[in-house]
Design a protein that fits this description.
By secondary structure, the chain is α+β, with helices and mostly antiparallel strands. It contains 19 helices and 46 strands. The strands form nine sheets. Strands 2-3-16-15-14-13-20-11-8-7 form a ten-stranded mixed β-sheet.
Length: 876
Amino acid sequence: MRNLSFGFAHPLSIKTSSAAILALLASGAACGSYDVDEGSLNDAELALEAAASGPGAVSGAVSGVGATGTGGFGSSSVATSTTGVGGDPATTGVGSSVVASSTGVGTGGFGSSSVTTTGVGGGAGVGGGDPATTGVGGGDPGEPPPGGPPAVGFWQLDDCNAATTALFDSSGNGNTATRSANAACAQGISGLGVAFNKDNDKILVDDDASFTFGQNLAVAAWVKPTAVSGSTPRTIVQEKGGGETSFSLDIRNSQARFTVTLTNGRTVTSRAPIQANVWTHVAGIYDGTFVRLFLNGQQVGQISAAGTLHDIDAPIRIGNNVQKERFTGVLDEVWLSASPTTAFEIAQLSCLRRPATAVVTPESSGQVAPNTPVAYQIAVTNNDVGSCAGRDYFLDIFSPSGGIDVSANPSFFPGVLPGSTATFPVTVTGTEDADPGAHVIPFSVIDFNSSEFIVASGALDFELTEPTGCFVRTSREIFVKDLSVVEDPVRTTFNGPPGDPRTGAWTFARLMEDMAPTPADAPAMVEELFSTWLTDQTVNGFTVPARTAIQQVVLDEWPRSPDGSLDLQQAPLLLLGIVNRIDVRNLAEGNAGEGRFVFGVVSQGFPQQFTVILEYKLPASTEADVLDWANDWHALGSLPFPSEAYNAALQDITTRFAGRNAAPGKPNGSSLGQLRTNEIALAGPWELREFVLSPDTGFLRPETVKLTPDLGFDGSPTLADFVNQNEASIIAEQHTVPDTFQGNPFLGGSSFNNLTAWTAPGILNNEARHKFSLNTCNGCHGAAETGTGFLHVNPRSPGNEASLSGFMTGITVGDPVSGEPRTLNDLRRRNQDLTALVCEPAPTFAALRAAPSGGAAAGAAASRSAFIRRGIGRVH
């Protein structure tokens, strides 16, 4: 186990728990119950009956029980097992309860993991105070004082030491306290406190004009009493002298008490049970109307007491008084104010923020083979003390190394209470694309409500072994987006020698010139393409509305040649990636899949949400042609990378499918299957369009979006009929969507994307529904079906590599109909397809092909042949 502690400062942020107060009221323990009268602090306790007969008889007591609550996120639970703050070690309860007998259960959850709460208080209590005790303790002696109203004195006691008896007043008022020499420094709730063990142990603060309270008094301290029973008061903080008392915060008969003396002679006390040997924050507020008592930030008593405090000339006594009514135990963080004070501010004082700790298990993965998932746990403990609001923890984790997939689910835990631990499950998988050896995967834990933002950080150690046998490198053989390729200084620019075949080979200009009827026709073809957005288009009977912002976003940004035509060499398009899509092969249609160039529009000074994809067929007529393409793509993985040798070999492949006359007999001799665009840069919503080369003009014209009906059919009986009638081929992902269905236009003229999924009442098989939706343009590019915010390849700025969607790299999404989790990773699926093509042992395959008809061998050969001839029918 590795324990990572982080010393970040934390602001005080706390809300008074209304749920806790409601729980107390529901238990029948009303705040402000009248109990007994105390004529003076030295009087014996009177009976309840006697109190009822006296006009000045006002005091309060309160008790309560914890509440049971449920709630959460997703389907998992937050399990709590918290020893009650101020409770007995054998007693359990939620933190909002205020008496030892409190019991309560809280349940809830988020995602699929759990939060386990470990003891806060009980036994040694919160902070313990003893180095040998378990729990949250210590703290930074240099921690700044909590916020709140102006204090007349704040004695944090962290400067307690044997060299001096002076104790600094951190309120800034200079009311230095003096500790008796025998009062020992001790471990406090926050740094040091002072222990009171002997009769004469005390802390005294000389009288000062600021100790005039009138109708505004607030006093608070952290206390850890070793004894609470008995009728003799145990002084916490008191203003007393010459036989007169203004106020007192003390413990008597196992109760914390806050008492004030008014100018009319009335003495008013509010009280509540308190436990020994645990840290408790005790506070009182008098506002000229009520005497209120607080324990651990929660109000536990309120008594009417209209008037003004009796003003006396006396010192502030801490831990003892002249009658030797001494506190027994340790005091810390003594605070006094003569300003109006709210319950929220008392709650702030009772919250001590502490650095979070993070523990990573296991410390290291050890050596693991590619594609072997390793499960880690990052346990983040909220070490805050007192009545602090729960922390909302978000795990930010990523892999800085290509080929290392990292996923955390869930990655967010809300409301992690002090003393609780949120455990983030993380899975790390190294692929063949990753460099073998040790990898450090950093993480940060973020609390968005904290000004520090990052409350903990660390790293996972992951060690990957060298791949063995036949394997495919996705980033070099399937989706190539490394800057050494997409920013090749010669192939992606026209900076090379004019006669060099490498110069501009992967530019949008060269690809358009090789696609057009003649290179000279390319500027006109491109302008006609982008001008289709300027007017409404009719495709398959459907109107595709104009998006005239194309003029400002693209055409006006495009430099022109002296003759007024578009200067293609200065096209506002940036290469994002070169893609091998052999997985969509269909030998019956004369192809071994597709090769693609993905471009992003860069205009108006930044990357637009607008991509242009050129999708070329890989010409093939035999199974051997398919395997040749597969092996040529695969051979790229064995070349040095990055290197000129790799780029040259990749150019050889791209020229075979994108070069001029790559497909004799097709329009312009081009092997282009379709050009597709995805954008929201021109208007909303997201829209996908498709274009093909016209056999009549040789220019690009609008075409239907394949496998995607018009959006108007979503949710319709017609859609249900189509899915049900084609269930088998849809599940196999080898279906087609016709131009018309049931006598009406069906295939869309463009694909509007509202980021939902395709559904319809009456669909019999949800797997068929899922595969149908997944293979539509808008379903695949939608949040509901694939967790995608539309683009699978995100635009980039020069010098930055394009990022990919979770659908491409790995994501788990709940099915929009059934709710079942579906794990999608299209690059892994494509890797498996290419691996099956190129890693088939040649002798075995040859033997199967030569085997007599019939039997298992022939069946295997037939299956292998079918696999080579046809991939899936997906178009995106």
